Amino acid sequence: MILLKTKRFIALFLYIIFVLFLEHSVDFYIHFLTNEVKETGRFSTSTILKILLPYLIGFLLSIPKVCEEITKKGSWKWDWVKFLAIGIPSFYISAFRIFYYVPLINYLYAPKFFFFSQSSLVLDTTAIIFGFILLGTLYKEGDLYK
After folding, report:
1. 145 inside domain
2. How many domains does the chain divide into?
3. Which CA distances in Å does 143 have to 4, 73, 127, 140?
């Protein structure tokens, strides 16, 4: 039993190291592309990567839970209550970074705080939460509240 928990701990620890390394590598690449945009003045993939990176991190962080669910018996279910209560509000807040480049923003209620804040911590955090909730709402029947 202890050997199994030790293996699981090592696997999860190595997995989080991999996710952090991936995030650092992509962040370095974004910084490189941002400097290129400053020099050329053209829109590039750095903006798209800046928008999608927090969603990807949340998605990657939920993979171990989904891997545990895959090994269980039963049919797949979707926790729509969790998705509606956490996923939709977190996507609404995190999507303001996307709406900045799309004319839809004129038709949506957007608190001015999200546009004039010097920090993007709120937008990044909610994007990570949404990415996590996308896979985190999947479960095998009989395992909803464990």
Report:
1. no
2. 1
3. 21, 10, 26, 6
The alpha carbon torsion through 131, 74, 77, 66 (nearest 10 deg) reads 0
Write down the pTM of the prediction.
0.71
Residue in the block written with tokens 């937008």: 123
Domain containing residue 91: 2-140
What is the rounded distance in angstroms from the CA atom of residue 75 to the CA atom of residue 70?
A: 10
Residue 119: inside a domain: yes
CA distance 136 to 133: 5
How many H helices and E strands in the chain? 8, 2
From first to last of its 146 residues, the chain has per-residue pLDDT tens of: 777 778 888 887 888 888 788 777 777 776 776 776 677 666 666 677 778 888 988 998 898 888 888 888 888 888 888 899 999 988 888 887 777 666 665 566 655 555 555 457 778 888 889 999 998 898 887 655 55
